[in-house]
Amino acid sequence: MSIDRYAVVGNPVSHSRSPEIHMAFAEQTGESLLYERIEAPLDGFIATVEAFLENGGRGLNVTVPFKGAAAAWVDRLDPGAALAAAVNTIVEDPTGGYVGYNTDGPGLVMDLNRLLPGRSRLKVLLLGAGGAARGVVAPLLEGLAGVLTIANRTEEKAAGLVATLHGAGYREVRSAGFADPGGGYDLVVNATSAGLSGGVPDIPEDTVRGAFCYDMVYGGETAFTRWAKSAGSAGTADGLGMLVGQAALSFQLWRGVLPDVEPVLKMLKEATA
Ligand code: ATR
């Protein structure tokens, strides 16, 4: 029998660390599989996915910019992926077809539980209201946040996301603008793409004083974690643990076994250092 094949599809995808993460999980759990990167043309996501699955591929991770297209392509959506309108994990449905999941938010919550053990009902500020923020809001509200404020540079977009969440039955969530996002937070999560151009969200320093500050982007010290440290945060982390966490949850969906994230996270940190 041929070996089970998985892949991450994106554009660009050459930077993706998913292959090394999943191959490390496979070794750790004794699962036999291969995991590759596939760059799909911007107008060729569906053809790429279908070719991979028709040629024996068993499942896929999906990354930028195809998570919305993946949500539209699958036969069924897990409720979390439906709310996020984004799929990062495509799983074979034993009854036929494919199911779309989003493990980004649960992966973030897994990492935050590791970093802040035993904490719950936190007062949380989420910065950003784009795709990355949308993917994590419901898991944050279910897993960690007692009350959530979503602040965005364009405040109406935060208000729109809050309205969606209210419609889905989440009550403890409100929107804010960057000028006055409030304070006294336990946790501040940066889900903006400001860091891609080396920037940080333009919020008052007071906002993060005493709060644990988490950047969903990975790369050791980020512009946001550096700024948060100087602004008096209680601690900082980049998104490497979230990356490994979402991968572990994808692996579990495909293989039925949840790998231990700690040794893989340690390996990646050492490789980066
Ligand atoms: P992603 O999938 O990374 O979330 P996106 O859907 O384009 O990408 O959303 C980008 C998010 O980062 C938005 O919340 C955006 O704020 P606006 O809605 O006001 O555009 C935010 N963002 C991007 N650059 C930013 C910057 N320099 N400062 C603050 N927020 C920024």
Features:
single chain; 273 residues; alpha/beta; six-stranded mixed sheet; six-stranded parallel sheet; 12 strands; 39% helix; binds 2'-monophosphoadenosine-5'-diphosphate
Could you give a short description of this structure?
With 273 residues, the protein is α/β, with parallel strands linked by helices. The chain contains eleven helices and twelve strands. It is globular.
Write up what this structure looks like.
The strands form 2 sheets. This protein has a 6-stranded mixed beta sheet with strand order 2-1-3-5-6-4, sandwiched between helices. Strands 9-8-7-10-11-12 form a 6-stranded parallel beta sheet, with helices on both faces. The chain has helices spanning 18-29, 45-54, 67-73, 79-84, 104-115, 131-134, 137-143, 155-167, 223-230, 240-255, 261-272, and strands spanning 4-10, 33-39, 57-62, 76-77, 89-92, 98-101, 122-127, 145-152, 173-177, 187-190, 212-215, 235-237. Helices cover 39% and strands 22% of the residues. The relative contact order is 0.13. The chain is an alpha/beta fold and 273 residues long.
